Amino acid sequence: MTLRREIEAQTRQLRERSGGMIPAQALESRARMIALRNTIERGLMLALANDLRLAISPDALQEHIANTPAFQVDGRFDPTQYKAALRSFGMTPKSYESSTLEALMLDQLQSALTTAIHTPDLLLDDLEALTLEKRQIALLTIDPDAMEPPSAPDDKSLEAFYKSHQAQYMTPVRVKLAYTLIDEHSVRDDITVTDDEIAAYYEENMPAFKTPETRHVRHILVKLDKENPNAEADASAKAQVLRERILAGESFETVAKESSEDITAQQGGDLGVIRRGMMVKAFDEAAFSLEQGAVSDVVVTPFGVHLIKVDAIVHESVKPLEKSRAEIREKLIADKAIEKVYQRSIDLEDRAATSDDLAAIAKDLNLRFKETDYLSMNDDKAEQIERQAKFVAAAFNTATGALSPVTEVDEGKFFILKVLDRKEPEPKPLADIRDEVSQAYMAQQNEQSATELLTGVKQALSEGKSWDEATANLPKGAHVTTPAPFLMTDLKSDVSAAARRAAFQTSLKSPLHAEIVRDAGKLNLVYLTKVLPVEEKDRLPEAQRTAMRRQLSAILGQEQYEDLLRDLHERAEVRVNEALMKQL
Fold first, then answer.
1. N or C: which end of the chain has fewer CB within 10 A?
2. Which residues contact 441 (CB under 8 A, 6 or more apart)?
3. Burial 375-385 (b: 16+ CB within 10 A, else e)
4. Given a cut of 90, is residue 96 above it in pLDDT?
């Protein structure tokens, strides 16, 4: 793949992942950086592959191409489809086969390099211990919000805080737009549907206007005894006796409640309303061959032996044309509207290519035109279309005075916009946000006090004081807990994931975790008090150790590969032609 194509591919991927929310310039810069890194790494690895004399046989290459679904028709390789697919990619068979050969060679090399030579048992034992070992800690927690509130800041302090945190108090980027929208509603007035078209649609789609026959049925089920070789004959004989009782005048519902072995027995065997094809074939054929009120002969299905009764029949009906006319007209208008919308979008693109007067274009094409007030990216006052990701991306990535591309925001819904003005972020006046800034100032003071308290405890511990001595006489908002022992991945523990990780980064020789652990707005010191060794009965079964070994092997293999890449970078003389990069 050429560097230009790599840049284009990375740009597409980043745009799709970000939903168009990354500014165009930043997105392009990021795509170029990734593409350049990938291209350099590919070149280094290809050079290594050549040095190692790796090769892919012609047969292996052809087999890979033949097994690519994009080149197949009905599951078989098709040369015509192959060439057509490559044309859509802008490639020839020669260029595609060359790039595929490189890709297969790189896959082969990377597979070899990422296979770790050996996973040491000691490392596996350590990982097992990390997984199964339980630890207990003492936890000093301070909630800055629960501490004694500091004094409100004076004007000088507040001004200084505001200026040092000004990036937090900026207005958002805002744009003023003009845009036009093409959708079904904007073209409906230009659409006509004739009576002949309605009649033709009715005839061509007659099945859609038919209501199939339905039947309300009941049944009695006698299940088959799987242990009995004569099960079907015995069940049929039992069902026949039940049928004779019904024919002699007993109620089908009563016999079903007494004798049916189906869950519908208590409802008198009521299966509700069925259509053809809803039941298994034998049951279906019997049910739809009966007259209303009749009881079937014995019917055998995979579920057992049945007696069926039809309570009611609703025969097939056809909705007349006159009663279907409005429905058909609406369907034809909708179909024509979609076609017209796409044609109108092409007309809009043509007009926008020669003029940036969006109001005049909208008037000529009879489209809705709107000028907005200033909008931010997440503006509650914006209309629904103005909040959609594609619209927002176009609004904030289009230069002032320029038109965006005609963009399909939903199926059959297009827009084009013009940025009339853009206001960059600017500091909000302190007078307007004084209370907000004051609250933030006091929150910072509380957090600073909490940090100083925890630092003091750490200092006391380093001077030889015990944990109990160092954490005595705590102020309001601070408390010590001793949670129950936990595993590192113990989701049921009251200890947060951050504190659990900290506990497993310390040892009994150095029990205090060096860093303050911040979690859910609270500050914590983690002090390891106990390590519970893994008992033999709790050790992992061999199958899990084998899976863990494979995971470790994959991690070590990836590290091995990345180490090699770093070494190749250091030894290679890589030079970037900045002038050429700017042209791409």
1. C
2. 153, 157, 158, 161
3. bbeebeebeeb
4. no
Tell me what pLDDT residue 2 has: 67
In the chain, where the domains are located = 3-116+564-583, 134-167+433-532, 174-189+324-423, 213-315
CATH domain 3-116+564-583 topology: Triger factor/SurA peptide-binding fold (1.10.4030)
pTM over 0.90? The answer is no
Each residue of 140-183: pLDDT tens digit?
A: 999 998 998 888 899 999 999 999 999 999 999 999 999 999 98
* Separation CA 305–CA 225 (nearest Å): 11
At the topology level of CATH, where does 213-315 sit? Chitinase A; domain 3 (3.10.50)
Return the CATH class of domain 174-189+324-423. Answer: alpha beta
Is the distance from CB of 542 to CB of 147 less than 8 angstroms?
no
Torsion on CA atoms 471, 477, 480, 485, rounded to nearest 10: -150
Same CATH topology for 3-116+564-583 and 213-315: the answer is: no
User: CA–CA separation, 177 vs 396, rounded Å?
Assistant: 10
Distance from C-alpha of 410 to C-alpha of 395, rounded to nearest angstrom: 17
CA distance linking residue 362 with residue 369, whole number of Å: 6
Contact 177, 420 (CB under 8 A): yes
